[in-house]
Amino acid sequence: MKEDSITKEKVYGKPKLRTAIPLMHCPGCHYGIIVRLICEVIEELGIEGKAIGLAGVGCSFPWPMYIDVDLTSCPHGRAPAMATAIKRLHPEAIVFTCQGDGDLGAIGLGCFMNSLLRGEKLTTIFLNNAVYGTTGGQMAPTTLLEMRTTTTPYGRDTKTTGFPFHASELAATMKGIVYSARCAVNSPANFQRAKKALTIAFQKQIDGIGYGFVEFLSACPPNWGLTPIDSLKFISEKMITEYPLGEFKNVESI
Amino acid sequence: MVERVLIEGSEAICRGAIHAGCTGFFGYPITPQNEIPEFMSREFPRLGRVFVQSESEAGSIYMVYGGALAGERVMTSTSSPGFSLMQEGISFISEAEVPAVVVEVTRMGPGIGTTQQGQTDYRQVTKGGGHGAYRCIVLAPYSPQECFDFVQLAFHLADKYRIVALVLADFIICHMTEPVELKPLYSDEVLPEKDWALKGKDKKNGKRTGNVGAMFRYGGPVEVHQHLSQKYQNITDSELRYQTYKTEDAELLLVAYGSSGRAARGAVNMARSEGLKVGLFRPITLWPFPEEALRQTACQVGEVLVVEDSPGELVEDVKYAVLGNVPVHLLGIWGRHTPKVGGALGGASGLIYPEKILQEVKSLI
Predict the structure, then answer these.
(1) Beta bridge partners of B25
(2) Is the predicted pLDDT of residue B262 greater than 90, yes or no?
(3) pTM to 2 decimals?
(4) Quick check: B140 pLDDT over 70?
(5) Per CATH, which fold does B4-195+230-235 belong to?
(6) Can you give the C-alpha Rg of chain A in angstroms?
(7) Is ipTM beyond 0.85?
């Protein structure tokens, strides 16, 4: 077949909002996929001009470099408080936070819960990889039972460290929230479901209905001590067993 | 004509903020400054401005951080234990170099201390209670009028230098009622544009703000601190404020700020009526500290008595300023008049009366 007889059509490429700065995440980390997903959703909703993002402390800290919207990094766990002020002062802006499990589930749990209690109109992207990634794999609130981390060297034991943190289910119990879902990006099908969930969460804010919360199960191969391929298996076999995917709340009004 | 009203310091602080165009107030209840968030919760919604009661002082300071990053004039107020909780946030705001105003109405510490008068936060407020060698401008009013004026000045300086400006009041200043002229200040001065603010790209002609911290902004720790040090030096060169009172022929110089400054002024008047040559040096900016002016005045007078409702914090800066050239005495918390009724709780209140200062003056002159 001659070269000029081939018709080329670009069906998938780098999202327009993804900056030229290379991702600094580890091989096999899902954060890059989630960055891409956020770019696609913001682009498709046409809100890049009024989007303001807040990235918590953890591996999402450098995200202000990756996504071409107004974005700031935040002190550990405090993104929802900062987002509250920004949204109240600029109600027309679409304000979202990106927070890891240590950031939202441990040091910032009070801050997060209180933003739900106040019924803020925000969107939170919660990244659950079951460990503190940036600091080298310590136990997080989301660490699975019996899972070994650098601070649970004998495996997570309920007697001394309690139980895994179910953020999506907890958020769904709050009156001030209108959407809560847990997703994964370990397969193309799950990626599409996650994209739909994040679109709904943003749409709830765009429509002025209320708080949207989307949890992403995310692989952390270096800290799990697994290859990227085995990490996908770990998500489908272990993570999803503890943290079932799906919508936990989706209401049209409060 | 300028409106003149009879109000207490807390209300003067609030009205100063309204005059300065503060659009967001974020606060958490703590005695003795509850009158401030209460006033704001009533007035701000009427004015179409934002009031949020946070879940803690940590919440308040991060709301202030967010609001400041959004390019708005925002503030919080608190008292000593709450101010301690805000230190992490103040450090972060100082790193981000966004303008913010914090009003600290001190009470007696350490710990829960009392809910009443005290000036025991001087070191924390002036030296930076958080990590990272940052500086905040500190303004110390000694009257409701100065509360009104200094809150406006704080917003002005915060915007001018992209810094946290603190207004350090105390229980007495916050609850002292006096006539206040509601004169707007600094409204015609041109300030740097907030082109760095997070507002969404549409409001900035497509320009994006991506903030990942000062190390990225300036290219490393050395550059960050060179930049900040230069900024702090500029402030020290341009923004020193202090007041001298009857110091020209004085033989003893009182040094005091806030409510103790007010009592010391009374003591100067009492001493003068008895023919005693006493003057007052009152630092208004506690940072930058008017070191050189104090040294010159102290050397000219020859002897110094520091008055503060504390075991002795301001006295350290005074000793440093005079460099051993003149004797420096301290009338500290032990000089308090403490009501004896009501046992331990009755003793929780108290202050250094002008009469006590006069007595101390007489023992020195």
Answers:
(1) B51, B75
(2) yes
(3) 0.96
(4) yes
(5) Rossmann fold (3.40.50)
(6) 18
(7) yes
Q: Give DSSP secondary structure letters for A166-209.
A: -HHHHHHT-TTEEEEEEEE-SSHHHHHHHHHHHHHHHHHHHTT-
B52–A93 CB contact, under 8 Å: no
CATH architecture of the domain formed by A25-250:
3-Layer(aba) Sandwich (3.40)
Using the structure block, give the residue that is written with the tokens 């033989």: B251
Least confident of A174-183, B157-166, B259-268, B336-345: B336-345
Q: How confident is the model at residue A5 (pLDDT cuts 50, 70, 90)?
A: confident
Q: CB A49 to CB B202 under 8 A?
A: yes
Structure confidence by residue, pLDDT tens digits, B10-64? 999 999 999 999 999 999 999 999 999 999 999 999 999 999 999 999 999 999 9
Of B62, B201, B210, the CB nearest to A82: B62
Contact list in B for residue A83 (CB cut-off 8 A) is 66
Q: Distance (Å, rounded) from C-alpha B286 to C-alpha B241? A: 9
Residues 6+ apart with CB under 8 A from A23: A31, A32, A35, A66
* Tokens representing residue B68 in the block: 């400041």
Q: Which amino acid is at B177?
A: T
Residue type, B245: Y
Domain B243-364 maps to which CATH number in 3.40.50.920, 3.40.50.2300, 3.10.129.10, 1.10.287.3510? 3.40.50.920
- How many Å lie between the alpha carbon of B202 and the closest alpha carbon of chain A? 5
